[in-house]
Amino acid sequence: MYRFMSFFMLALVSAVPMLQGGEMADSKGTVVIMLGPPGSGKGTQAVQLSEQFKLPHISTGDLFRHHKKHDTELGRKAAAYSEAGELVPDALVIDMLGERVAQPDCDAGYILDGFPRTLNQAVAFGKEILGSHELVVLNLDVEYDVVTERLGGRLTCTQCGHPFHKLFNKPVREGICDECGGALTQRKDDTEDVIRNRLRVYDTQTKPLIQYYQDLGVLNSVDAGKDKQSIFTELTGTIKAARRVSNHG
Ligand code: AP5
Ligand code: MG
Known about the structure:
The protein is an alpha/beta fold. It has a domain at 28-142 and 195-248: Rossmann fold, CATH 3.40.50.300. It is built from ten helices and eight strands. Strands 2-3-1-4-8 form a five-stranded parallel sheet, with helices on both faces. Helix 1 (2-21) packs across helix 6, helix 2 (42-53) crosses helix 10 (228-245) and helix 7 (144-152) crosses helix 8. The longest helix has 20 residues, at 2-21. It is globular and about 45 Å long. It starts with a helix and ends with a helix. It binds BIS(adenosine)-5'-pentaphosphate and magnesium ion. Magnesium ion binds next to helix 2. The site of BIS(adenosine)-5'-pentaphosphate has 37 residues, from helix 2, helix 3, helix 4, helix 7 and strand 6.
């Protein structure tokens, strides 16, 4: 935790001039933040964008599920919140994410799926990103009745976490992940009551980040009610355009 907070403090010093200009001419790499309600397709799109741009995909939800699967203390603590559709406390999330992004594969940038989810997380982490990376925020905008239908039919790989859907995104072989051959299952938080609570939590704690990133001039909203491929095309174009602006080509 201490290491990560020091990291933030250093970054804050170098971030201040960047906050004024918007364009980050000498940034090291691209950090993509995927914002959007549960079921908006953050994970689905992040997997493809990760392949396209050769950037690691980091899902805080997947990291917590990985810890849970390996029965770590963090995994047990986080599961108590996740399975009820509540957010895991900021300190635990920030600490876990700090360790992940300090790994060398993140030097040239990464794709964040499900982080930040509170203003505290955004402020703490944003200072680090703006100082050393170019930031692109993708907001997946979609109606709640659409996401409820998506989550109700979602199947998730128990090995690699890849999301499928019973109707909209079927695996080639029933019950088997196309990516790694793992078994598909329904996530514990994909039940009607928990989905409703996750949407409520999103409304109160995460939605304000849309305005926060709008004010920073880095928000890009897309209609995520469309088909997967159209959304991917739009997101790809948005990232390329943002990189062109900051000379990444
Ligand atoms: P997390 O795993 O991030 O869950 P979430 O935000 O609720 O998002 P989902 O994974 O449910 O949805 P998604 O947007 O990735 O959609 P997907 O691509 O799968 O977090 C889980 C929990 O961990 C949280 O509740 C919290 O407790 C904790 N947590 C995580 N991060 C945290 C943080 N930063 N702070 C605090 N706590 C944190 O798609 C959904 C379905 O739709 C799939 O079946 C898919 O096949 C289908 N689909 C996708 N796109 C389309 C499309 N265009 N058309 C039709 N179907 C589609
Ligand atoms: Mg997801």
